[in-house]
Amino acid sequence: MYRIAICDDEQEFRNILIEKIELLNMVTTNIEFVQFSSGEELLSSNQKFDLLFLDIQMSGMDGNETARIFRNKDNMCLLVFCTGFQQPLTDNFKVRPFRYIMKDMYYRELFKELPDILNEMIVTRRQRYIVITKDGEVNRILLDSILYLTVDGRRTKVVCIMSGETVHIFCREKLKELYNELKQECFEFAHTSYLVNMKRIIHVNKNMITLENHDKVYISRTKSKKFNSRFTQFLNRKFRREYGD
User: How far apart are CA 70 and CA 75, in angstroms?
Assistant: First the structure.
């Protein structure tokens, strides 16, 4: 299921957008639409979204400030700005919007862009990634390529498999910061200094994990209960997907 959020203080616009998305019939699985009439209301939600349509000019907190705070909570959601008046500013692009759409009386630009927007949402969902800062530059890493992340001095080392080879990527983001984004994506702490992608585990033996590249990670006593619980949940979900209920 895809979850699409629409944050706009005009109920009519929200209704029209939902109707048009449903008429396009591009998404074969179910869509859950979540509506917000203000930036404050959106930011008070703890839900994760695949796509967010965000109006810039709203009463109370405007879309620019809403987007800045939202991005601190969710780096992966596809963001589309919608506005009837304001031209894009430099700051708008710091939050990485996929599109910046000007509303007109008949929403012609929006309807023209919708197929591309929905297609990008579908592609992004298949290829989830995390945004990290490496050597002063912003980089994206596919989540499925990550084996584990670990503390390396003042940096975080991201251990990945790319083209069959183990690759180490160093970033300035702290491990706990990255966990806040990755805990919804099958990642869990095995040790205070190791965050493991459960999809990449090939063996668990008591207190030792073996990853696909045969690296081994120790499960600490303080993390074992939560890790084992989450790994069991992960395996149960995987079994149901592959073999049915």
Answer: 8
User: CA neighbours within 13 Å on the CB side: how many for 38?
Assistant: 6
- Report pLDDT for 83: 86
Burial class of 214 by CB neighbour count within 10 A (0 to 12, 13 to 18, 19+): exposed
Among 83-92, 122-131, 134-143, 144-153, the least confident range: 83-92
Predicted local confidence at residue 92, as pLDDT:
64
Model pLDDT for residues 121-132, shown as the tens digit of each residue: 988 776 678 888
How far apart CA 122 and CA 134 sit, in angstroms, is: 27
User: How many Å apart are CA 187 and CA 167, to the nearest integer?
Assistant: 18
Domain boundary among 77, 104, 126: 126
How many secondary structure helices (H) and strands (E) does the chain include?
Answer: 6, 15
Q: 49 in helix, strand or coil? A: coil
Domain edge (last residue) among 101, 126, 151: 126
Does residue 121 sit in the same domain as residue 11? yes
